[in-house]
Write a structure and sequence with these properties.
By secondary structure, the protein is α/β, with parallel strands linked by helices. The chain has 4 domains: about 5-200 and about 355-375, Rossmann fold; about 210-345, Glycogen Phosphorylase B (Rossmann fold); about 440-570 and about 635-705, 3-Layer(aba) Sandwich (Aspartate Aminotransferase, domain 2); about 570-635 and about 715-750, no CATH class.
Length: about 750
């Protein structure tokens, strides 16, 4: 049986979300395919540019969130349980996919991919994953009834992103006419309008999924996702006129205060039952309307949004009511309650619905049959869709087919010479984003420590507490080569180098942070080809790469790996532009000495120091152009937005700054260190016994509290930002004014509210 993966929302405690994924799964299985829902949960919001003219609206939103005023979703544990039980029974989920590389691996496991339904294509929450950007073969991609949700796209960056993704689809459908129009305008492509998947199931089929609630007496069911008091006044009048009591599915806290019957613990199955047994339904919900139609119930649908709102979702309501000839069910004048409200005929609606249903199912059947039977073409060999440039693939390749060089965004990554590639798959075996070379940090399994060198000179020269230097020094004296990152001022780049065992005097080149991507290839080649044992420092993805290399060579036990708590790396184009303009303005030249973390005023206050030609430039982070971009994380390597290692590691030891309130008064620096293996524990204990460090065990939970456990979000203006940074005619100050000012302003406002 051919396997189909469904990419849609499933994790929100929303009836429409749960029921649409259930219907999609049910329908695809009924068509003769094995269906599974991709277990992907996005973790953050869309990032767009805040414009000066709209700044007040942003401030208002911040104030609303800060005050936490009402309109909060009233979810109880009973309801959560009901949702989870329903979905566990109705759908099968894939293995959890956290990153783009996890999704990419699904290509070899499924014969086709379906995205839809729900508002997964809404511009306000744009996420390219829901456009199946991880699917290699576009012929395997089927769009079934995704919704754009609005009738226009205001943001040009989002429009460009949507255009790029939609153009990949061969089998393209949409849920609303407004969405079809948008696709035609931005892509020039024709999309077929099909029914929401919930309408593909009959009432008899939904009956099988219903969970009895025991609610049998006559009632008007109220299900509102908006909180409009004028709407409630109209509903009250309707109840009084029809002499039928109101029953509420609660969403807002106020729903419990209205004095009507409130049904708690309602899951998707109970929702179906409440609809089918209701005398009348009042709703502003799309799926509340849909299920009223499925069960041929008299209903009223209310507009939830103002049509002046650019994020209005009213169009999808208009579309389905117009399609099925039920326009009279839409309430616009809330001052009038019609005498015939309880009368609703479905004779013509049934005919229209059956015709639309047949056409929609035929589209889905045809698309799935064609996509699953497509003969796999010889595709360009690809290791993964998430390259971090660690160099492991280049080192392992026996054909010299892989080169690590700068891409169009200014980052080091792997390029494959397809003419040399023999598809031996060795590169895939060592790729940190294609394998499983990571161990999740676990507070019951791993110990977290405060580490601080007892050598004042070490503390001054180190970014934080000197843990890295003390580890490398001890191991170097014990016969370990030391591999770490240095700043090459002649090349104006970071690069990994090896200091041979016993050469303790040269270890100082590794001290201090380097906030740009490092080239590891030569150093990793040295490790594999010349070093018998070594301690290796790097970012988590770099360390995961060398870990895989060593394991493949069956030499892992001879090496100690240390990864660094990583914030992310900005484009090299930013650093090049920064140095070039700074040299011209401040006179320090193009090859100055650089300290990315200069500590004249202590560890907590971050400064950058650049010295050359007898000139010295020192600035605090908030007044320095490089730091302004770095701290916002908007021009990082694409992989940084899909990092698999923020809470996972392939190292023996993880270390970084011990931020947070615990050591806020420390001026010299404190390291946070996690022992990931027994080897890591032994090293820390030995350093303590040698009286080289101060060592204090702390709660591992502090890692999540004071570090960066979640990936940043790639902004929709990413490509434009990179191009502006590359543009030699555009000064970096102007680029910062365009891309940094608004976010910095809002952050200051938020901190002062």
């Amino acid at each position: 049986m051919k396997k189909v993966a469904i990419m849609t929302w499933f994790h929100y405690y929303n009836f429409g979300t749960a029921l649409q994924v259930t219907a999609s799964n049910y329908t695809i299985k009924k068509l003769g395919f094995q269906a599974e829902v991709i277990r992907y949960i996005p973790h953050a919001r869309l990032i767009t540019l805040p414009h000066r003219e709209n700044i007040n609206s942003y401030i208002n939103k911040l104030n609303i969130n800060k005050k936490n005023i009402k309109n909060q979703l009233c979810l109880d544990t009973v309801r959560e349980k009901a949702f989870n039980e329903f979905l566990n029974q109705q759908i099968k989920l894939t293995k959890e996919c956290k990153t783009a590389s996890d999704l990419f691996k699904l290509n070899s496991q499924y014969d086709a991919f379906v995205c839809g339904s729900d508002q997964i294509w809404a511009p306000s929450i744009f996420n390219s994953k829901y456009f199946l950007d991880f699917v290699q073969n576009p012929s395997k991609m089927v769009a079934y009834a995704p919704s754009i949700g609005v009738d226009r796209i205001e943001n040009k960056h989002i429009e460009n992103c949507m255009k790029e993704n939609i153009n990949r689809f061969k089998y393209l459908s949409i849920r609303e006419e407004q969405g079809k129009k948008i696709i035609k305008e931005i892509c020039g492509k024709e999309a077929k309008v099909v029914l929401d998947p919930t309408l593909l199931l009959s009432s008899d089929e939904w009956d099988k999924l219903a969970v009895p609630t025991g609610q049998k007496s006559p009632y008007i069911l109220c299900y509102f996702l908006g909180n409009n008091e004028e709407t409630w006044e109209h509903v009250k009048k309707l109840s009084e006129k029809a002499n039928i009591p109101l029953k509420i599915i609660p969403i807002f806290c106020q729903d419990y205060e209205r004095g009507y019957d409130v049904v708690n613990g309602v899951g998707p199955g109970e929702f179906i039952d409440l609809i089918r047994n209701a005398s009348f339904i009042c709703t502003d919900s799309f799926h509340g309307t849909i299920f009223s139609i499925i069960y041929e119930k008299p209903f009223y649908t209310y507009e939830r949004f103002s049509n002046r709102d650019i994020n209005s979702q009213n169009s999808r309501i208009y579309n389905i009511l117009n399609l099925l000839g039920l326009e009279d069910r839409l309430i616009k004048d809330k001052s009038i309650v019609n005498d015939n409200a309880l009368f609703c005929t479905y004779n013509e609606t049934k005919k229209k619905l059956e015709a639309e249903k047949e056409e929609s199912i035929n589209y889905l059947r045809s698309a799935l049959n064609e996509s699953t039977s497509t003969i796999k073409k010889a595709e360009t060999y690809k290791i993964t869709n998430t390259c971090c440039g660690c160099g492991a693939c280049s080192v392992i390749c026996k054909q010299d087919a892989i080169d690590i060089r700068r891409d169009k965004y200014g980052f080091l990554r792997a390029f494959i010479d397809q003419s040399k590639c023999i598809q031996c798959n060795l590169c895939k075996k060592v790729c940190p984003y294609n394998g499983e070379s990571r161990d999740e940090i676990n507070q019951e399994k791993h110990n977290l420590y405060m580490v601080k060198s007892k050598d004042e000179e070490v503390l001054y020269s180190s970014s934080s507490g000197g843990a890295g230097y003390e580890i490398s020094k001890m191991l170097c004296t014990k016969g370990y080569d030391v591999v770490g990152c240095v700043y090459d001022k002649e090349k104006r780049e970071s690069v990994h180098k090896m200091v041979l065992a016993g050469d303790v005097g040269n270890l100082n080149v590794f001290q201090g942070s380097k906030y740009i991507q490092s080239n590891t290839v030569d150093a990793f080649n040295d490790v594999i080809n010349t070093s018998e044992r070594a301690v290796i420092f790097g970012t988590p993805c770099q360390i995961a790469g060398i870990d895989s290399l060593l394991k493949l060579n069956k030499r892992r036990e001879n090496y100690i790996l240390v990864d660094l708590i990583c914030f992310g790396v900005p484009t090299q184009y930013l650093w090049n532009k920064y140095l070039k303009e700074g040299s011209k303005k401040y006179g320090y030249g193009l090859t100055p000495d650089v300290q990315f973390r200069y500590k004249p005023r202590g560890w907590r206050e971050k400064y950058i120091s650049i010295q050359g030609n007898g000139k010295c430039y020192v600035r605090q982070e908030n007044k320095d152009l490089f730091y302004r971009f770095f701290l916002l994380r908007h021009c990082f390597m694409p992989t940084c937005y899909e990092c698999a290692y923020r809470t996972a590691s392939a190292a023996d030891i993880r270390l970084g700054d011990y931020w947070g309130p615990r050591y806020k008064d420390d001026k010299n620096g404190v390291s946070m260190v996690i022992a990931m293996t027994i080897t890591g524990e032994k090293i820390l204990e030995e350093l303590k016994e040698l009286n080289k460090i101060q060592l204090e065990k702390q709660d591992c939970k502090e890692y999540w509290a004071v570090q960066y456990p979640q990936n940043p979000i790639m902004p929709v203006f990413y490509n434009e930002l990179i191009e502006d940074i590359k543009d030699e005619s555009m000064l970096l100050e102007k680029v910062a004014d365009k891309y940094c000012w608004g976010f910095e302003f809002l952050e200051n406002i938020k901190n002062n509210i």
